[in-house]
Amino acid sequence: MGESLRDQLLKSGLVKQVREERRGTEGKGRPSGKPHGQGGKPPAPRRSQEDMDLAKAYAIRAQTEANERKRAQQEAEEQARQRRERKQKIQQLLDGKALNKAETELVRNFEYGGKIRRIHVDAAQLAALNAGELGVVQQAGRYLLVAREIAEQVRVIDGHLLALLVDPDAATADDGVPDDLVW
């Protein structure tokens, strides 16, 4: 029990280390020895190869996702531009060529977009529409009655906008209704 704490510290070597650190700090307020590099910052801990590979993989993934987003955005912009051009062509084609009349007495029903739609026509227009001489085009939420040639041109530009065009070569006698139900 005869050893003091100081003696025990000297034997263990801890006191020697503390004395060396004191000597180093006596000069300028920081330990002597080699500086930690430029700027006096301690060196960054070395990354393991696994950490670098993971960081590289994340960077590649982020770049790939950014490229994919950019490509998708360019594709969407191109499709929007093409839609605008088609819409403008159809608008120019239809200007002044709609045959709709304000005062009509008949309604012609047809299916378009999974729903039953209707267009108001007079007797002559109804006969021409059923014969395939006229067609119906959907433009800006309205249904326009147009000549067959105009309807065919609309079909070429954007087939989705052609609402009704009866095939004149279709058999009119065989309309699917039994003869005993015809009045």
Can you characterise this structure?
The protein has helices at 5-12, 14-25, 49-94, 123-131, 148-157, and strands at residues 106-112, 115-121, 134-139, 142-147, 162-165. A hairpin with a 2-residue loop joins strand 3 and strand 4. It has a three-stranded antiparallel β-sheet. It has five helices and five strands. It has 183 residues and is an alpha+beta fold. Mean pLDDT is 80; it is low at 177-183. Helices cover 46% and strands 16% of the residues. It has a domain at 106-165. The termini are far apart.
Q: Class by helix and strand content?
A: alpha+beta
* Chain-averaged pLDDT: 80
Low-confidence stretches: 177-183
Shape: rod-shaped
Distance between the termini: 129 Å
- How helical, in percent, are the residues? 40-55%
Pfam families: DUF2058
Region (Disordered): 1-89
Biased composition (Basic and acidic residues): 17-29, 66-82
Organism: Rhodanobacter lycopersici
